[in-house]
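2 proteins. here.
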Amino acid sequence: MNNKPPSSKGNRDLLRYAGMGTQIFVSLGLAVFIGLKADKWLHISPLLICLLPLLTLIGLFYKLMRETAKPPKDDK
């Protein structure tokens, strides 16, 4: 049997992507909440609640592409 300890690189990657996923969910939740409050305040019903999460997704996917395209920094 192979009793090797799990690699720290795999754990680091797992935490990196879990952090990105958490950032996406929190950002979308905030965009929906801000869009809902702004729509009520400005009396323009479905406009900002649809537009803000869409713009947030575009920005987050751009950031995600940039972060995953470059290799992660190694801590030495």
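next one coming up
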Amino acid sequence: MVRPRSPLFVLFLTVFIDLVGFGIVIPILPLYAEHFHASPVAIGWLTGIYSGMQIIFTPILGKLSDRFGRRPVLFVSIVGTAIGFTLMGLAHSLTLLFAARILAGITGGNISIPQAYIADVTAPEKRSRAMGMIGAAFGLGFTFGPLIGGVMSRISYSAPFFFAAGLAVINAVLVYLILPESLSAEHRAKPRQDTKFTEVFQHGRGAMFAIVVGTYFFLIVGFSIMTTLFALFTEKRFGYDAQANGYLFGFIGIVAVIIQGGLIGRLIKVFGEVALARTGMILTTLSLALLPLSGNLAFLLLVCAGLSIGSGCASPPLSGLASQMIERSWQGRALGVMQSAGSTARLLGPLLGGWLLMFDLRKPLSHYGRTPFLIGALLCFVGAALAFCVKKPAEDRSVEDITPGL
């Protein structure tokens, strides 16, 4: 069997399916849960428990991939994702639905494995560009997930979950048949007792890695505040319904795909990873601060483009820089820690945003959303300040590249 020139397509598809699964539940899960007489509190937990599981299991999956290789751990996690979606579609009780969401969250924490795979097979100066393709998969998944969920819900509430399960099965087959292993035996982590995830900060430039993770955390917290409250904000300010908000989220996703999938390599070549990450953080900060000032659709679209471009310019370079800070045998754990920080941010952002929104409810309508968005901008500003402390490590061209076309 001939190996493909590059495994990037399979990695891209893995992340895309993860994000489609995440996006599918946005329009469906609350209504699906109400079918089982779930209270609003239960619905909130049902939504958040997915990210909660990723906080715990993303670094665990990364650690396992450092020990046993990327391919087997990725395959098993994708099979688990397929089972999780199938259980959601078959759920006949709230308990089973919770169990399915927990399983999906555990296995959906595999995002660090494609990132570690890229770190294995690319030279340091090429990693951020490749990470941009992973970012493009994020954008596409976030664009098509809610759309698929909304359209297929016309068949039944179960149909979107069965569709996502089918995509996961296809993905698992591709991983099994055509994805080569990227981590050779000599570079795998050795079994050890009482290994702690905090040890990752001791392998390589641990202090600088911590700064990169902190920058990424504040970026995701601010952005998740926006995504959580955006539909409520546009409904109150502009009278937009769910369909109109779907188009706006689609616009944000498409811009992200253009930046992270098409332009990120050229931008890094011209400006460098550190400068691009700093610029992206500043642009995200400014866009969040301007969002509550939106008074018409043109201005709103401009702000949305700024948010998408800013996060799209910051996230891939940060992932690429993180992979360069840590020794090769710790790549999976390092990127697992980073993605766990992102999952924590996606859990805290909605909780913080909802609480902050309470301060605007008794104010004039023109103030609606101002408090959470400005606090989100402030958090991104903290991340931007951290970004200015980041220094790129010296290039290391000793990386074994099994896919020179990547």
